[in-house]
Write a structure and sequence with these properties.
Helix content: 40-55%
Strand content: 15-25%
Shape: globular
Largest sheet: 6 strands, mixed
CATH class of the largest domain: Alpha Beta
Number of helices: 19
Radius of gyration: 26 Å
Bound molecules: iron/sulfur cluster
Distance between the termini: 69 Å
Number of domains: 3
CATH architecture of the largest domain: 2-Layer Sandwich
CATH topology of the largest domain: Nucleotidyltransferase, domain 5
Strand order of the largest sheet: 1-2-3-4-5-6
Number of strands: 15
Length: about 500
């Protein structure tokens, strides 16, 4: 059977026709989803199943491995006026399987379930595509909805599905999109029929709505000083690329740049590192010994697992603290919640309290994250409010010298993320680690708790390996902070 334009492929087409082309011609070249994407997708499937509970009379319209049978069964259910899930509709080479369809006699409703709390434009385009295919296949759609997670929901005992979800009417927006559909579908079909991938330049679309998995291919030869590394300059980068300018060093001197972009420009042109010694000095003067380099790891779920939590509220499960004493001595303290399904927040704050003394500065890298988690912990455990207020008042953000460009090296590629700053400034990096990103750590912890990975049950050894990876990852985050602070000091003292 020839490949069909499914919802997934349509969403890829909305992002980039080259991505779509690979879906049809070289699917094997598209890297499989990474751990965090897999985690997101699995949450989406789970949320989809929960939404079905709002329709207790609904039936499954899908017949396993019977494509034509599923289409026929769907048609029968429409005619019978029965609510159904996973109904199949086809029009020419376009095929959709809808999450929920409610064929009330006076109003046929199409419902697409999403695990997010806000409607994204790609989701509305997705609904428009489904509405178009269903209508063209001969079934009317009077109303089109996105069913989203209600971000005001707070768990209290058993889940109340009618409160957990919120339904957003997107009929008008979908119809607006459908009006221009014929032209877009023609472009899609031309791309599908082409022997070669469309010549799509890289751009902002490569990360919108998600990072395209083909980035390692398309972005392979992008240099460190690519115009796409310009600070908050993606649109400008696209204009420069269209004009044939690919590196920051090539930007004409008459181009209007922001202050941080100007720093990047000078670094690229002069092949040097920017150091604003005065600002670094002022920053360093605020820090007091002992210095607590502190980092948290959290996970969050669409459906809050414990009472008092909102959807996607952060649940801290791990921290690392490197304590730097004035005499040069360095201690390491850490906490990783056990691999069991339990609310980890109380143990987290109690252990953190034991790890941080009454005096000295507390360094975080991008403090709004750690401060936000502490604030939520204080709300959940009022008995720790005073301590949280005290520790929060001592927090200093090590991100500041990099985010404010007191220090900038072209090797950072326009980013002040610790993942970019660390290898630019030291000989350390996150490469080759079992776990090398925060999102990956969240997913890894969740999987070790539930004892499966990629749908397969994990052995005790595998769980231990992942836990060792978590400890190693979080420890590097705070060790990196020790090293970055040391480097900043060395630039002042030289
Ligand atoms: S990386 Fe960018 S240009 Fe390449 S296929 Fe993906 S979206 Fe298109």
């Amino acid at each position: 059977m020839p490949k069909l334009l499914t919802k997934t492929r349509f969403r890829r087409a909305c992002q980039c026709l080259k991505y779509l082309w690979y879906s049809f011609h070289k699917e094997e070249d598209i890297p499989p989803p990474d751990t965090q994407s897999l985690f997101r997708m699995q949450q989406g499937v789970y949320v989809g199943k929960l939404a079905q509970k709002l329709f207790p009379d609904g039936v499954n319209a899908q017949i396993h491995k019977d494509f034509q049978g599923s289409i026929i069964k769907t048609k029968e259910l429409v005619n019978q006026g029965k609510t159904f899930f996973e109904g199949s509709f086809q029009y020419t080479n376009a095929f959709v399987r809808v999450d929920i369809f409610v064929p009330n006699p006076d109003c046929f409703e199409l419902i697409e379930v999403k695990s997010s709390t806000a409607a994204k434009s790609i989701d509305i385009s997705d609904v428009a595509f489904q509405k178009y295919v269903i209508q063209k296949s001969g079934t009317r759609v009077d109303k089109a909805y996105l069913m989203l997670i209600n971000n005001e929901f707070v768990r209290n005992g058993d889940l109340d599905y009618s409160q957990l979800f919120t339904k957003v009417d997107v009929t008008e927006e979908a119809d607006e999109i459908i009006r221009d559909f014929e032209v877009f579908l023609q472009e899609i079909n031309e791309a599908i029929c082409s022997q070669n991938p469309p010549n799509m330049p890289i751009g902002t679309h490569c990360d919108d709505p998600n990072a395209c998995p083909l980035k390692p291919l398309c972005w392979a030869n992008v240099p460190d000083d690519s115009v796409f590394t310009l600070y908050r300059g993606k649109k400008l980068a696209e204009e420069l690329q269209t004009a044939g300018i690919h590196t920051i060093g090539e930007i004409p001197p008459t181009t209007r740049l922001g202050a941080k972009q100007e720093i990047q420009y000078n670094c690229a042109r002069n092949d040097n590192i920017h150091i604003d010694a005065q600002s670094i000095q002022r920053f360093l003067e605020r820090i007091r010994y002992p210095i607590y380099h502190m980092d948290f790891e959290t996970y969050s779920l669409a459906v809050p697992p414990y009472d008092g939590l909102k959807p996607y509220q952060r649940i801290p499960f791990q921290f690392s603290v490197h304590v730097e004493h004035e005499n040069g001595e360095i201690e390491h303290k850490e906490f990783l919640a056990p691999s069991e399904e339990t609310d980890t927040r109380r143990a987290f704050i109690e252990n953190l309290k034991e790890s941080i003394g009454e005096q000295g500065s507390v360094l975080a890298y991008y403090q709004s994250f750690e401060l936000g988690v502490l604030r939520e912990l204080a709300e959940a455990f009022p008995e720790h409010q005073e301590w949280v207020a005290h520790i929060s008042s001592r927090v200093i953000d090590l991100y500041e010298p990099f985010g404010s460009f007191y220090y900038y090296d072209t090797k950072q590629k326009g980013s002040a993320s610790i993942k970019n700053v660390l290898p630019a400034m030291t000989d350390l990096s996150y490469q080759g680690m079992t776990i090398s990103k925060g999102d990956e750590a969240s997913a890894a912890y969740y999987y070790t708790v539930h004892g499966f990975w990629d749908g397969t049950r994990m052995s005790v050894e595998e769980i231990q390996t992942k836990r060792a990876g978590l400890l190693e990852y979080c420890k590097l985050d705070t060790w990196a902070m020790v090293k970055l602070l040391e480097k900043l000091k060395s630039h002042i003292n030289n």
